[in-house]
Amino acid sequence: MKVHNTLSEWLETPHGRYLLEREQDLFDRGVSDIFGYNALQLGLCDHELLRAARIPLRVLAGYGAAAQVLTRPDELPFDSGSLDLVLLPHVLEFAEHPHHITREVERIMMPGGHLLLTGFNPRSLWGLRRWLGRKNGYPWCGKFISLPRIRDWLELLGFEVVEGRFACYAPPLGRTGWLNRMRFLEPAGDRWWAMWGGVYFLHAVKRVPGVRPIKPLWNGRLVGNLLPVRPKLNRNASHHTDTTDTQ
Q1: Which residues pair with 200 in a beta bridge?
Q2: Which of 87, 82, 153, 150 is nearest to 121 (CA)?
Q3: CATH code at 186?
Q4: How many structural domains compose the chain?
């Protein structure tokens, strides 16, 4: 079996095209109702996963000739709080320190910004293939990260996961003909064994708690004594003064 040196190279194989087709559909539906000004796709720059986005400025960042911005995923050259949408397609499982990337992504996103990411599911036939087989070449050389662990990282950074889906229920074996015969597994998998999909898709929103003013517990009697009081007129003194003047 041929060993693939990059994920983009593996995506040109029958299984890679099968995966990319389903993930492209997930990204298309995920970004279609997101509005804003700036969007970033980090990684897989050879594939325009932001094609369905309504955001005007879309940037491809990472490595390769198709990248508009050459950068490391854990040191992004963008201002803090400047991006409305970030896509992370299979970035974390091939990074040495994936939690550093999530922190950097949180930094550059504005409050209310959207994060869409995909990853290989270790609790699936794809994860079983990696565990039992050789781990050289893509995508099997990556460290598949479980969905609960990803969710924990995001929640610690203040993200709220608003959607999660699975895809790619066909086993990563055989050729194109085998994959075509296994297409019926996609709708069946979504209904009957969703957690066993080969990849997962997450949509999270960056939440920033609002500042709530703290009102002091004033003492009503004390406040009443502090308020200015209109002076009362002494009627006797006034009458005495008027009499004196008359005399």
Answers
A1: 119, 166
A2: 150
A3: 3.40.50.150
A4: 1
